[in-house]
Amino acid sequence: MRRRLGFVAVLALAALVATWWWRSRPRSATESAPNVLLIAVDTLRADRLGSLGNARGLTPNLDRLAANGALYSRAYSHAPWTLPSFASMFTSQVPQEHGAGGRVGDFRGLAAAHDTLAERFQSAGYATGAIVNVDFLGRSYGLMQGFDAGEIDERFYDDNARLRDARETTDAALGYLDRHRDEAFLLLAHYFDPHARYAPPPEYRARFADPRDQQGSAFDFGAREQVVLWRARKLQPSVDDFQRAEKLYDAEVAYTDAEIGRLLAGLEARGLARKTLVVLVADHGEEFLDHGDWEHGHSLYDELLHVPLVFSQPGRLAPTRVDVPVGTIDLAPTLCAWCGVAPAATFRGRDLGPSLAGASLSPTPLLAFGNFWGPPLESVREPEWKLIESTMSAGRTLQLFRADEDPRELRDRANSDVDARDRLSSDLALLRRVLAARARVGPPVRPTADERERLRGMGYVGGEDDDGR
Question: Residue 319 contacts by C-beta under 8 Å, 6 or more apart in sequence?
């Protein structure tokens, strides 16, 4: 009997060891359960891609990615600035639900109770890594939950003139691929170059800047001081200044595209292309007087909300284009389904997988909320119409735009198309009531002195008399 019990104990121990070994060994990527390379370009307007109509030749690598994959021509962010926008991508919830964001002087992080995209992949055995270049994506704000602690590459700077540029970001991403090429991974590569200040390398300045600015950097636009003074209405650059700045922005986009091309070539050279789903997305765009303002965080017009969205995996995903509006909250459930990872029960977006295979996609209302500067804003979008509601002390204002006839949103039809205005306003009120039942306010984030100085240097907070923001 003792011998039999001993034999059973040995078998049980062997089973435990085998289970531990199997669970602890790295998960391998396959074409049907691939790696994910999530390329997020901060402040990239959708209309800079050649695949979406731009004729300047800024994005040949991103256009090639789109030509070989699924291009969503009408993808939209749910917020006009970084923190709430990325939180919506990661949680598949709109800002009213996840509560991350806030306003100047009242930053709110992402609560640990949220289930995020990275946590879902981590729990499924994926290695998870992030290369990020702004405080709002760092640990302090809660957006790094689910990323492996040893593979969170945060690089923050004291102003918006000295940043990790696209070349260094690509180098960091290639290093991650080398460390994890034999295991399944989810990697976030965050490029920051198009964000103000606009200071492209000389080669791209020479190709895309205004002729007056192609050979030198005497014209400087987007420095922290200019952002703060512009917000205080103490700086009034000319229209010509903004046109020159916009061309410098274009040069930054072109430089970022070239470095993303180098990253994609590195993925191919390492034999990872066919078992890696590459996703291109942006958190928001940038305004250059489209509606009389500059930069981002201040409106819900489409120069800030319309973002690129591309999925590509050679051999598994055939080229397709989807023209139905989709939101970035759809990203997390789509990635989970594509890779065979269980989604979180709290994800609100939808799996876009059928449309990746060429099936038709039914439209659904898309919401956007909040701003960093100015009065609170909300918007609701359907295929033809978009309504923006602003709440100020003087009352409520409504703007209505028809997307198919006025894609630049220059003609407000709130007074001429009353039926559409009232219908969307009623829809927005209903959705607002639904969200109120599950609304959250994220935990307050009080930046350290160093963090506050970095945000001040980036132009996210004001002058010396701000309230500790």
Answer: 67, 68, 69, 70
Q: Are 460 and 453 in contact (CB under 8 A)?
A: no
- Gap between the Cα atoms of 52 and 42, Å rounded: 18
Cis peptide before 197 (omega within 30 of 0): yes
Q: How many Cβ atoms are within 10 Å of 189's Cβ, its own excluded?
A: 26
The C-alpha atoms of residue 366 and residue 380 are separated, in whole angstroms, by: 6
For 92-131, the pLDDT digits (tens) are: 999 999 999 988 778 899 999 999 999 999 999 999 999 9
The reply to whether the predicted model has a pTM over 0.70 is yes
Look at the chain and count its residues.
469
| DSSP strand pairing (366-369 vs 306-307) | unpaired
Terminal CA-CA length for the chain: 73
Give the Cα separation of 368 and 391 in Å (integer).
Answer: 14
Q: What is the DSSP letter of 57?
A: -
Domains defined along the chain, listed by start = 31-457 (3.40.720.10)
Task: State how far the alpha carbon of 74 is from the alpha carbons of 56, 200, 228, in Å.
Answer: 20, 28, 32
Residue 195's H or E segment, with its range, is none
Residues 338, 49: Cα–Cα separation, whole Å: 25
pLDDT digits (tens, 9 = 90+) for 272-301: 999 999 999 999 999 999 999 999 999 999
Q: Which two tokens stand for residue 304?
A: 């800030």
β-strand 309-312 against 70-72: which pairing, if any?
antiparallel
The residues near 421 (Cβ < 8 Å, ≥ 6 apart) are: 387, 398, 400, 413, 414
**Torsion angle, alpha carbons of 75, 81, 83, 87, to 10:** -20
Whole-number Å distance between alpha carbons of 444 and 466: 17
Q: Which helix (H) or strand (E) holds 214?
A: none
